[in-house]
């Protein structure tokens, strides 16, 4: 659906103020592309609601009309999750961007979905608090909820799902549903909150959320650990995770990626299989003790070097470089797109997955970089190619397929943090078996006309 | 349904070995009472499956016959959650009690639902690991999953919901569904796992689970903190929770309960409003630093005394006494039943809830003890009475009502950890509003004949 009827345009125009509904070409084109290689179909129009009531009125109308609706956040998704693949209406949530309350005593914040993660953290920081899930990109909270976003600090702090306590959701037909509550724990009824977290906008639109916050750690300590082989590096991950030292981040980097980061970012670090670690604690003294224990474990596991003398400035550079790994790869290959593997496996299987993935790249002579949130067993392989070159792209998809199949065989998942979106729908049956049919039933129950973010998650 | 037809008896008898299906009176009576004041109706029979296949065959049969089925674990529930209120078949899961695997490198265990919590911990302990959710009672893992059980260490370690990674569930019609996976994180599809956790057996029967485990902390430190007033004690809770010191337990006790524990257990501690705290750490040194910070915060908040010199033996006695608070109260009033308030609120509202609850007891001259998992905002009021004395019991229910209404007004819940069961169904509409209708729709989708654990959660 690339065009509304004049009646539909009139009707939608009455639901929001005039500057918040557009059928202009440029606005529509801006909403057909996220950072993935996927492309949406041109939507018929964009609407920017500012309240739950507006979202409810809009969905009440579109549902009756059979108009597909795709919610939009920051557009930082890597799997085409917010792209309007059937056109229709894009509901851009970025004007619902108010932080309604930060309640330090409760360690909670009430926010609208269009609040950006970094904005929330800047505000929460004034109370010594932060919202820990950190996907790198400055996503909106709504987008993070939709995809259950996570990132480098998930091993210690958990994913977005672990931080959402309460939601206001507008269902596809316009009904407004509250879920969850503000108490830290509850055993009351079905967990609707976590049904909506990670549902990628296919079950409704989140219009308000209560989030848990955490205290900003008093002390940080970063460490870089260098190994001779990828196996040794990845095997050390399981040792560290079982140690009770509770690292705040534990990232694996291959020499190839470090080489690229050295060239592009001037990092100047050894081009060896490496772990980037971070520890958080209540004091410097406690952290030094933690670091001493970590070093002992790493050296016992064959570490060549363990550096903790990383200064604040260097610590930030290191993590910025890690956060920007995707951008760095993207920039190093202008005019190419990236296909990102996001498989996750139990920690003990991580070493074989790392080795297997590197072998797949080598066997197909593909351009790709293996790294990941090792402490979570979450493996990224960022592969570079041209989607217009059918042969080359198909070869990258084959690598993705073989890695995902291996991950699922090991009890893992096709996506640790990016969501299913468009590109991973073909793995749903493989990964979930009979559970996939139940997911479809739930989708059918809540969105019987199939209008909410169509073309995502389900084939 | 208190009797099966001869045909039904024959059919059910063929589905399991002869010693695992019973229509004997004593077995049936044993399954009509948990530790709550509620009573089930006499079931027509009890069945003890030993495999997913058997559960599937049984449910496939009962579903076709319209036989209500109620799953049963350890019978330690406090809200009648496993009582067969419509009779029918009780499915006793305690013979599915195998620990299938403990995988230390993955920090995971694969278990059947009839494994007892303490058995799992004894086994996991050999690998230096434990399953943190601790409701006090030696519940089965299946029961803990059904009720999203938690307890004193939830503030640091989370509830059962946070530890369930993967399930095998048999739906009411016998379909077998896998949910989740063994990877530490996933953004793949709807979170079916957490839909089933806390569903109290109303959506199907869990026949296998993969659980996260945590490393047993190297060092423990217990502290008792004494205050002049309940307000000062409960206000200190929020301060401690916001401090980043991450206590492993933070319990509030009133002078009345301590007095009872002193008399019944010979604890010999001050009968003042008190906090019982526990801290876990990587070393004794780190813990002493933590304790020093905690003491400073507590004294600034008006603590009269802060004792950390609690020895291992005393620490265990203290926590045993706290764990057995309910049994102690029960035993002190022979022949009476207890009605347990389980409301939870955001931490900042905890002080007013504590004071309000004590006032309610005083105003109605009810026998009751206020305590709770203060760090979670989870308040227990254990009230003592005789359900046969309509006037007295109604008065206790009124107290429960007024506390729950206040909790919900404050954004909280009627049940932090016990589940809805029978006694809290009347609060579902109040607490969940339009979300309650969606829960009913989901129940209708998965159990259209309403046969799974009928009479629970929904009115």
Automatic annotation (TrEMBL), chains A, B:
Q: Name one GO biological process term.
A: lactate catabolic process
Q: Do you know which PROSITE patterns this protein is assigned to?
A: FAD_PCMH
Pfam families reported for this sequence:
FAD-oxidase_C, FAD_binding_4
Task: Quote the EC number.
Answer: 1.1.2.4
The GO molecular function terms of this record are:
D-lactate dehydrogenase (cytochrome) activity; D-lactate dehydrogenase (NAD+) activity; FAD binding
Ranges for the FAD-binding PCMH-type domain?
39-216
Q: Which Gene3D superfamilies match?
A: 3.30.465.10, 3.30.70.2740, Vanillyl-alcohol Oxidase, Chain A, domain 4
SUPFAM superfamilies the UniProt entry points to:
FAD-binding/transporter-associated domain-like (SSF56176), FAD-linked oxidases, C-terminal domain (SSF55103)
Q: Which UniProt keywords apply?
A: FAD, Flavoprotein, Oxidoreductase, Transit peptide
Has UniProt tagged this entry with the keyword Cell membrane? no
Q: Which cofactor does it need?
A: FAD
Give the family per the record. Answer: Belongs to the FAD-binding oxidoreductase/transferase type 4 family.
Q: Which PANTHER family match?
A: D-LACTATE DEHYDROGENASE, D-LACTATE DEHYDROGENASE, MITOCHONDRIAL-RELATED
Name recorded for this polypeptide? D-lactate dehydrogenase (cytochrome)
Give the species: Desulfosarcina alkanivorans
């Amino acid at each position: 659906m690339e065009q509304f009827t004049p009646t539909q345009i009139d009707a939608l125009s009455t639901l929001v103020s005039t500057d918040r509904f557009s059928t202009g070409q440029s606005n529509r084109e801006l909403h057909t592309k996220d950072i993935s290689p996927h492309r949406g179909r041109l939507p018929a129009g964009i609407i920017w609601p500012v309240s739950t009531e507006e979202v409810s009125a809009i969905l009440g109308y579109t549902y009756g009309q059979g108009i597909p609706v795709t919610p939009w956040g920051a557009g930082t998704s890597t799997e085409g999750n917010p792209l309007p693949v059937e056109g229709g209406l894009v509901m851009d949530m970025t004007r619902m961007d108010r932080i309604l309350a930060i309640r330090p005593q409760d360690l909670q914040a009430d926010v609208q979905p269009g609040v950006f993660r970094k904005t929330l953290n800047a505000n929460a920081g004034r109370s010594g608090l932060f919202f820990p899930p950190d996907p790198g990109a400055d996503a909106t909270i709504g987008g993070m909820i939709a995809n259950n976003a996570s990132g480098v600090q998930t091993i210690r702090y958990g994913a977005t799902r672990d931080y959402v306590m309460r939601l206001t959701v507008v269902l596809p037909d316009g009904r407004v549903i509250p879920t969850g509550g503000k108490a830290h724990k509850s055993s009351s009824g079905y967990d609707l909150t976590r049904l909506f977290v990670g549902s990628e906008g296919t079950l409704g639109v989140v219009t308000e959320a209560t989030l848990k916050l955490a205290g900003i750690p008093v002390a940080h300590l970063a460490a870089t650990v260098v190994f001779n082989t990828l196996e040794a590096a990845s095997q050390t991950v399981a040792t560290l995770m079982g140690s009770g030292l509770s690292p705040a981040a534990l990232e694996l980097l291959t020499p190839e990626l470090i080489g690229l980061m050295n060239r592009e970012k001037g990092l100047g670090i050894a081009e060896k299989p490496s772990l980037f670690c971070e520890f958080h604690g209540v004091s410097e003294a406690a952290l030094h003790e933690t670091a001493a224990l970590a070093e002992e474990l790493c050296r016992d596991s064959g570490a060549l070097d363990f550096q903790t003398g990383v200064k604040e400035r260097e610590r930030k550079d290191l993590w910025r470089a890690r956060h920007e790994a995707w951008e760095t790869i993207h920039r190093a290959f202008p005019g190419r797109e990236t296909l990102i593997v996001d498989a996750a496996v139990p920690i003990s299987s991580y070493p074989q997955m790392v080795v297997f993935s590197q072998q797949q790249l080598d066997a197909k002579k593909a351009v790709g970089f293996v790294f990941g949130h090792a402490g979570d067993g979450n493996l990224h392989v960022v592969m570079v190619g041209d989607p217009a070159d059918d042969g080359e792209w198909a070869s990258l998809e084959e690598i993705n397929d073989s890695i995902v199949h291996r991950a699922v065989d090991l009890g893992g998942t096709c996506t640790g943090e990016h969501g299913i979106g468009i590109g991973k729908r073909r793995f749903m049956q493989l990964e979930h078996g009979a559970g996939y049919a139940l997911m479809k039933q739930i989708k059918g129950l809540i969105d019987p006309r199939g209008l909410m973010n169509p073309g995502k998650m389900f084939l």
